[in-house]
Design a protein that fits this description.
The chain is built from eleven helices and eleven strands. The chain has helices at about 1-20, 20-35, 40-55, 55-60, 70-85, 180-185, 190-195, 200-210, 220-225, 240-245, 255-265, and strands at about 90, 95-100, 100-110, 125-130, 135-145, 170-175, 215, 250, 275-280, 295, 300-305.
């Protein structure tokens, strides 16, 4: 009963905040209308972190390896990229104008670490947090009230929100899933195996061998390949898709026909700009009867187990979106 009770209480609290502040309700409604699932917001945050890491040129995949100036700049990049994605108008006194209301945007890698400038008092703030290590993100709205802020000791007098008053935040999404930074979350042994090759193509092949049934974004591919034609290195005709076919591995992209294969195999379905690899085996009449399966090239295939012998994988269906 506890989760239901807690959820009900949180919903009642949210409804109360929406009733008490019409501007808050208007901004909340417009953002949710623009992004009902939060997928667009999550993609902006994933792409922003990857933009800062700049893996294609630096090979970096870990937030801790950023320079201090890059981390400081992160909030500005998040602000810019959200405005580009959602086409928010410029604000009069704050960053954005959403539903006719001035809204300031504040990002922090540390939950609760939003730095609120004195001029934001009385205004609505869009508070954004993302953590690559837990693969979680949140975004919420708060009307800034002086009594809810800690005293500022820094030179520009920016303030933080008192922990006791974070319950005043109206969450658009809270602790939502951030698209995984696969390189960050691989084991050290797997990472060393991937980066142990001098060839970008060989590194990509090893990535798809070792990170099966996980969504792999284009920025991960770019970081591993470190080549301008990185997408070509994934596809058939000499890329990872054809190189690993003899090992029984399929690499599905964000085409509708590929998504259908992943869905039928009950593995993660690639989203826009993502790939998912999996080793398959031809279904045994007895063993494969109850397993999720897909028919390719006139034969039925299932996700291979460690006990299944390696056999060449079938070709994927024709690309359609």
């Amino acid at each position: 009963m506890l989760p239901i009770d807690v959820s009900a209480a949180a919903n009642m609290h949210s409804q109360s905040l929406l009733r008490e502040d019409p501007e808050l309700a208007a901004v909340y409604g417009q953002i949710r209308d623009l992004d009902p699932t939060g997928q667009r917001f999550a993609t902006v945050l994933r792409d922003t972190i990857d933009q800062l890491l700049n893996g294609e040129k630096t090979g970096r995949f870990d937030w801790k390896t950023l320079f201090k100036t890059e981390k400081t700049h992160a909030g500005t990049v998040v602000e810019i990229n959200l405005q580009r994605e959602f086409k928010f108008n410029d604000g009069t006194d704050m960053d954005y104008k959403i539903a006719g209301v001035d809204v300031d945007c504040k990002y922090s890698q540390q939950f609760g670490g939003w730095m609120i400038p004195p001029e934001a008092v009385g205004h609505l703030c869009l508070l954004v947090w993302a953590d690559d290590y837990t693969s979680r993100w949140s975004a919420g709205l708060l009307r800034i009230v002086p009594e809810w802020l800690n005293s500022g000791n820094n030179r520009d007098l920016k303030l933080t929100i008192k922990a006791a008053h974070r319950n005043k935040i109206l969450w658009l999404w809270h602790e939502a899933e951030l698209p995984e930074n696969v390189l960050l979350h691989m084991t050290e042994a797997d990472r060393k195996a991937v980066f142990g090759y001098s060839s970008g193509q060989a590194r990509l092949n090893e990535l798809f061998r070792r990170a099966q049934q996980r969504r792999i974004g284009r920025n991960v591919v770019r970081t591993v390949a470190q080549q301008k034609d990185y997408m070509k290195r994934v596809r058939g005709n000499g890329g990872s898709r054809s190189a690993l076919q003899q090992e029984g591995i399929l690499i599905m992209g964000d085409y509708d026909s590929h998504k259908q294969v992943a869905a039928q195999l009950h593995i993660p379905v690639p989203r826009e700009g993502e790939f998912v690899s999996v080793r398959v085996a031809e279904a045994d009449l007895k063993k494969g009867a109850s397993l999720p399966s897909v028919v390719l090239e006139g034969r039925r295939w299932v996700v291979a187990s460690a006990a299944d012998a390696v056999q060449p994988a079938p070709s994927l269906p024709t690309h359609t979106r």
